[in-house]
């Protein structure tokens, strides 16, 4: 039994086909153009009747490049809204194919109206229902933003990445591609260095548990992560030493010194850095590392390291010798550390000591977790003791039976 699907020029899809085909054949003259336009419209009508939405999308996209060059932005958005709506008529695999066709066409000329192309991709994404289709379009949008240099338009969406991952349920390889692309997008934004490093670290972490051959694929990005960490003036803590993709550099003939530099910044003090720099100044310059900036960071890191001692006090003289500074610069560097939120302390000028109540950790591994557990246990005990004392006093004052006193559990 044949199903009759009525169509007319009022159908948005047919209207788009007629408009774009007339635009494409405008220079050929009416005798040539009219038969071609009629043929394309009939073909589009047949696609609608037969439900061949993928073929219809392909037909509507035939003159996409021409449309971008000759149509206003507002009309362009309307045209592609109609085209993108075709995906909503389909499910699963067919939806994915239409989404792939449309997004691939849109991203072919990333430097031509990139912001508008990105907006069209966002509209397409919101019309899709399948997680595979959505992930594919989002990746296309990321690459378009990167290649078209409109990264600021897509950066706000990164706040929802965790929600997206739950929705997409993608595998490890797709996660790697996603994290690395986001890191590259953020690198293009001058104000997002810390976020770029965060996603680069996420990318490297996906190689944990893989064999050495697979891990070696991340070698260049592992080096990049080390250099970005060393360069960053506002990143003082990371877990790179615990990531296998970074640990492989230690025994690599080409990158062993890069790994050694990372260990210095995460586990040693200024003197170790100065010794390393003196022997490897050419290497430092090849990675664009500025010696003065590295000294500044290492001084702050070294000061924090001094604050980690058990006594909680740092003599001014020790700060001076460790940071290799003058007497009158000691308090200046303490203030810098406080401003950078690396430590919480007070300066006892009379006794020439810095009294530390808290300081940041450069690495946060098993030892740090044990220390935190011990501090929490102590705090819990102190709170329990305080509550018991208060309640005991309350019993005495109110004459309540001692058995009604509650204890923290």
Which key phrases capture this entry?
21 helices, mainly alpha, elongated, 409 residues, 64% helix, single chain
Strand tally, please?
Answer: 3
Mean pLDDT: 87
Largest sheet strand order: 1-3-2
- Sheet with the most strands, sense and barrel status: 3 strands, antiparallel
Q: Cα distance, first to last residue?
A: 74 Å
What pattern of helices and strands is seen along the backbone?
HHHHHHHHHHHHHHHHHHEHHEEH
User: Helix/strand-derived class?
Assistant: mainly alpha
Number of helices: 21
Shape: elongated
How much helical structure, as a percent, in the residues? 55-70%
Radius of gyration of CA atoms, rounded to a whole number: 31 Å
GO molecular function: translation initiation factor activity
Keywords: Cytoplasm, Initiation factor, Protein biosynthesis
Subunit structure: Component of the eukaryotic translation initiation factor 3 (eIF-3) complex.
GO cellular component, one term: eukaryotic translation initiation factor 3 complex, eIF3m
């Amino acid at each position: 039994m044949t199903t009759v699907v009525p169509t007319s020029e009022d159908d948005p899809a047919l209207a788009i086909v007629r408009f774009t085909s007339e635009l494409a054949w405008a220079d050929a003259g009416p005798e040539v153009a009219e038969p071609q336009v009629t043929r394309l419209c009939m073909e589009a009508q047949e696609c609608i009747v037969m439900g061949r939405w993928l073929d219809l999308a392909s037909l509507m996209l035939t003159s996409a490049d021409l449309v971008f060059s000759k149509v206003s932005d507002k009309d362009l958005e309307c045209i592609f809204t109609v085209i993108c709506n075709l995906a909503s008529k389909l499910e699963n695999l067919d939806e994915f194919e239409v989404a792939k066709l449309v997004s691939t066409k849109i991203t072919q000329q990333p430097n031509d109206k990139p912001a508008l192309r990105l907006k069209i991709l966002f509209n397409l994404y919101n019309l899709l229902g399948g997680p595979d289709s959505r992930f594919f379009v989002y990746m296309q949008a990321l690459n378009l933003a990167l290649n078209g240099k409109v990264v600021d338009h897509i950066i706000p969406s990164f706040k929802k990445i965790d929600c997206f991952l739950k929705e997409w349920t993608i595998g490890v390889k797709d996660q790697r591609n996603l994290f690395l692309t986001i890191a590259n997008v953020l690198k293009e934004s001058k104000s997002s260095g810390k976020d770029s490093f965060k996603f680069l670290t996420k990318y490297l972490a996906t190689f944990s548990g893989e064999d050495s051959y697979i891990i070696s694929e991340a070698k260049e990005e592992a080096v990049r992560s080390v250099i970005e960490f060393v360069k960053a003036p506002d990143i003082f803590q990371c877990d790179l030493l615990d990531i296998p993709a970074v640990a492989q550099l230690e025994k690599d003939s080409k990158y062993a010194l890069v790994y050694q530099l990372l260990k210095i910044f995460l586990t040693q003090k200024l003197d170790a850095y100065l010794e390393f720099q003196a022997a490897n100044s050419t290497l430092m310059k090849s990675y664009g590392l500025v010696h003065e900036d590295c000294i500044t960071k290492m001084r702050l890191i070294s000061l924090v390291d001094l604050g980690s001692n058990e006594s909680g006090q740092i003599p001014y003289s020790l700060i001076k010798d460790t940071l290799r500074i003058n007497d009158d610069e000691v308090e200046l560097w303490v203030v810098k550390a406080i401003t950078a939120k690396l430590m919480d302390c007070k300066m006892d000028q009379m006794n020439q000591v810095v009294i530390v109540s808290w300081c940041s950790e450069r690495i946060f591994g098993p030892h740090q977790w044990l220390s935190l557990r011990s501090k929490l246990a102590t705090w819990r005990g102190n709170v329990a003791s305080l509550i018991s004392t208060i309640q005991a006093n309350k019993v005495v004052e109110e004459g309540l039976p001692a058995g009604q006193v509650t204890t923290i559990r």
